[in-house]
Design brief:
single chain, 106 residues, mainly alpha, two-stranded antiparallel ribbon, 5 helices, 4% strand, elongated
Length: 106
């Protein structure tokens, strides 16, 4: 009976992991499709869509030190570098709740 129970647990774990991996893969494909739907060089309107903000906020973002800019075309921003910058510079709220609270109330 223990062997059957262990086999059932293993099968359940395998099915759960398969479903989890499928969901992660599908989300990765969706994210990539959304990212690569933008042109290689972004303009401010593209940045407004990506950041989901209005142009005045984009103007503040693009003046931040280290924000990627095209070396050859003015007012254009390399798509892949922008997404990399976002990944490296955006705060993950769940991981940083205690820091955010201490700044807000401390």
């Amino acid at each position: 009976m223990n062997i059957v129970l262990e086999e059932l647990k293993a099968k359940l774990l395998e099915e759960s992991l398969r479903e989890l991996f499928t969901q992660a893969y599908e989300q990765g494909v969706k994210d990539s499709q959304e990212q690569y739907a933008f042109p290689h060089l972004l303009n401010k309107k593209d940045l407004c869509k990506i950041f989901q903000v209005e142009e005045p906020t984009v103007n503040k973002i693009i003046t931040r030190q280290g924000f990627p800019k095209s070396k050859f075309v003015t007012a254009r921003y390399p798509r892949d570098e922008v997404f990399k910058w976002m990944h490296e510079n955006c705060v993950n709220v769940d991981e940083n709740k205690h820091q955010i609270r201490s700044r807000s109330f401390g």
